[in-house]
Specification:
With 163 residues, the protein is an alpha+beta fold. The protein is built from 3 helices and 4 strands. A hairpin with a 2-residue loop joins strand 3 and strand 4.
Length: 163
């Protein structure tokens, strides 16, 4: 009696193994894509917060136009003690500028990781770091610079105001 060999024996098992490998690679690719998407979304959220904070500072500068025109927003790097201006006690334009900056800087510190910000006169606004904001005091534009650190990388957003 002659036994006939079946050459396709074990073929289904091999197909199943290849399918499992392909599905595993696809699942890993999908997981990596999700992680990258979450990272980009986080970065976009921080940038959005920085943008809102920079525009809030610009609104504060525009609301105190006499103070901006007098140069009171030209070099706000470090917050100073604010006066006790209230609805009853009227602030001077200098007190309002100092108070605006101190309140805004506190908000930036709380809203962004390692957040800080400066408001200054600068002819080349899109430069500087949190440690050295590079405000040259030249020109006619007030630069609002917001700095934060995201996953070990320093980030910056700059808004320019021309009062």
């Amino acid at each position: 009696m002659h036994l006939k060999r079946n050459p396709s024996r074990g073929f289904a098992l091999m197909e199943a193994l290849v399918s499992v490998v392909i599905l595993s690679v696809a699942a890993l690719g999908y997981a990596a894509l999700q992680l990258r998407g979450l990272s980009a979304n986080s970065s976009a959220a921080w940038r959005s917060k920085a943008t809102v904070l920079a525009y809030e500072a610009a609104d504060r500068v525009r609301a105190n136009l006499p103070g901006a025109t007098a140069g009171l927003y030209n070099n706000l790097i470090t917050p100073t003690a604010t006066s006790a201006c209230t609805l009853i006690t009227v602030c001077s334009t200098a007190q309002m500028a100092a108070r605006d900056f101190a309140q805004w800087r506190t908000t930036v510190l709380g809203a962004l990781p390692s957040g800080s910000g400066v408001i200054c006169l600068d002819s080349t606004a899109d430069d500087g770091t949190a440690a050295a904001p590079a405000c040259d005091g030249v020109g006619s534009q007030i630069a609002i610079k917001v700095f934060w650190t995201e996953r070990g990388t320093a980030s910056r957003f700059v808004n320019v105001v021309r009062p």
